[in-house]
Structure formats: structure tokens, C-alpha cells
Amino acid sequence: MTIHFELNGRKATWEVEPGETLLDALRRHEITSVKNGCDTASCSTCTVLLDGKPVPSCAVPVCRVDGHAVMTVEGVPETARRLGELLAAEGADQCGFCSPGLVMSVVAMTDEMDDPSDAEINAYLSGNMCRCSGYVSQTRAIRKYLEVKS
Ligand code: FES
Ligand code: FES
What we know:
Elements: E1 2-7, E2 10-15, H1 22-28, E3 47-50, E4 53-56, E5 69-71, H2 77-89, H3 99-112, H4 118-124, H5 136-149
Parallel strand pairs: 1-5
Antiparallel strand pairs: 1-2, 3-4, 3-5
Helix pairs in contact: 2-3, 2-5
The chain binds FE2/S2 (inorganic) cluster (FES) (2 copies).
């Protein structure tokens, strides 16, 4: 089937397969920032924004984005660069596999919350799994990102 939607601020028209997930369709179209960490909506490495809300793209049939707006980390390069630098500086960026999904969750969080506490940051990002770094260094990096951003 053919779908028409907005991808990272630009109109897109894709041919997609019945039953194909948004994650698979994005990667098939070379949006490879979106990672498959579990394929069961459990790890958030595949997080994208759908009409501004974070969703696990592995659990979204791509046909459902017809007429909607999808944002991936390719659509927020400045945020990704700044957060990436801070994550690296805090020792929170090791293999980096979780980072694109984490960045998109942080984008959603900052859209929803003005001045989150560390507890609120940790609660909001509790679904974003990281196999490498532990979460304290991530929280430090995100706190610094929020301080510079405000
Ligand atoms: S790959 Fe989608 S939540 Fe893990
Ligand atoms: S840095 Fe490796 S999974 Fe998070």
C-alpha cells in the first residue's frame, strides 16, 4: 500500500508492506538511527515521535502513520549533537546503541515538562534501557543538557 506522511518535517510517500512495522520501514528507507533492541516494545531503543508523542516504532504498524508526522533523531540534529557530547563527557555513551531512542525521549520530555527534577527525569525515561553505562551518568548528562537549554 502507499502511505503519505511527514518524516522529519518533509512530505514522504512510501510503498509499505502489509504488517510491516514502522521500525522496519524506517530502516528499509535508510533511517538507520532507529535501533531494534528487542522487537517487543520493551527497551525503547526504537523510540520515535509520532505526532510529537514518543512511541516504540517496533510496535507501530507503518500503515498507521499515513497522514501523520514522524520524527526521528535525523530530524533533531542539533539536539542530538549537544546531548551526544554531554553523554560522552559524562561517560554515558559507550556503544551508543540506546542513544537515538534516548534523545527522542528527551525531546518528548522537554516538550511536556518545563523543569523536571532528577526523579521526574528518571521516571520519564524509565523505559529507555541501556546495557552499558548504568543510568546515573545519563541522568547527569541530561541534567546538564536541561541547564544549558534553559
Ligand atoms: S526495539 Fe522497540 S522497544 Fe525495543
Ligand atoms: S551505551 Fe550501550 S546500550 Fe546504552
